[in-house]
Amino acid sequence: MRPDPAPPNASQGQTTQPPICVYSPFVAELQPDSVRPMTGRGEPLVGRVIEPLPNSLYRVELENGHKVLAHPAGKARLQAVRILPGDRVQVELSATDPGRGRILQRLA
User: Fold this and answer.
1) Torsion angle in degrees (nearest 10) through CA of 17, 28, 104, 52
2) Of residues 108, 96, 89, 75, the one with CA closest to residue 44
3) Given this model, what pLDDT does residue 83 score?
4) What is the pLDDT along the chain (108 residues), one digit of tens a residue?
5) What is the pTM of this model?
6) Cβ(20)–Cβ(26) below 8 Å
7) How far apart are CA 101 and CA 34, in angstroms?
């Protein structure tokens, strides 16, 4: 058997460290909010579906007056929740684009 080759920095007296994982929970505490991956933005908002669009997209007017483009979340899609114009829905806004969102559920 051959001996393991020495790392390139070993001859210079430097030690090599493994790369830091950017999404590690320990490293995330040290990073600013702009670097951390985000999935949603705070609490879900309530809105009303204005019109259905192609490719399972919907235009939703939120209670605060903003209009967003939203698509159904995975569970709503799997359970074949029927979303019609005029329905009240719960929407989670995208962290990167506040004009887009995800429909979490249809409200009564």
Assistant:
1) -80
2) 89
3) 94
4) 666 666 555 556 666 666 555 555 555 455 455 444 445 556 899 999 999 999 999 999 999 999 999 999 988 888 888 999 999 999 999 888 889 999 999 997
5) 0.61
6) no
7) 19
Q: Do residues 28 and 20 touch, judged by C-beta distance below 8 A?
A: no
User: Using an 8 Å Cβ cutoff, are 46 and 91 in contact?
Assistant: yes
Element of type H or E holding 89: strand 88-93
- Token pair for residue 58? 């919907």
Q: Which amino acid is at 86?
A: G
CB 44 within 8 A of CB 75: no
